[in-house]
């Protein structure tokens, strides 16, 4: 079961003043138009049509909020790079996306989605270089991994990882992802759950599990630090 399966559409925000007031933590999804942002949100939520997916680039125009749990959100951002009037792009960036990404308190991290066949376009680099000084983490999804062979996937992953090392510090990570094949979901869930402060089910299950049955393969002395959370 996907970790974010309870995600529901919350609201569309066209003005900064309309940002949800109750947000505790939220993760934004950014990337070129058509890179697969909305598809990635749907895949992580285990849904077909939660976020709007289109063959026509540039269809997500505002900030779309999806509730994961009380006060915890995914935010689907408008894609960049799709030919729009320069004036329109500037207005959207200066009026909404720029201030949102630089000043939104509950924003705990940015997912940058890049088509694995074309990582680090100039516009991706502009966004990343602009966001890095905020000090918040970036997780890169190399999307549409199904379009590459295994060998090509390994190569692009290695190249992008090498680039992240150049950025220094430990705030940046990358993985392959395919909404079509549903690959990379658990890896993404682990990163995003960590950022959002949402407990992974495996961890919760482990913590709530009683001592193993006598004679079962796991029937050893319980290790220190494991077990239930009683007493907290
Ligand atoms: N093969 C393949 N196609 C994908 C994948 N993810 C998305 N697509 C396709 O790519 C196109 C764009 O996907 P969207 O999720 O709408 O992209 P977006 O980044 O939200 O686009 P904008 O909202 O325009 O910025 C659609 O035709 C999707 O079906 C994937 O993992 N594999
Ligand atoms: Mg979209």
Automatic annotation (TrEMBL):
GO terms for molecular function: GTP binding; metal ion binding. It comes from the Bacteria. Residues 223-232 have a biased composition (Polar residues). One of its GO terms (biological process) is division septum assembly. One of its GO terms (cellular component) is cytosol. The keyword Cell cycle applies. Keywords: Cell cycle, Cell division, GTP-binding, Magnesium, Metal-binding, Nucleotide-binding, Septation. Its cofactor is Mg(2+). Residues 23-198 form the EngB-type G domain. Residues 203-232 are annotated as: Disordered. The keyword Cell cycle applies. Necessary for normal cell division and for the maintenance of normal septation. HAMAP family: GTPase_EngB. Belongs to the TRAFAC class TrmE-Era-EngA-EngB-Septin-like GTPase superfamily. EngB GTPase family. This is Probable GTP-binding protein EngB.
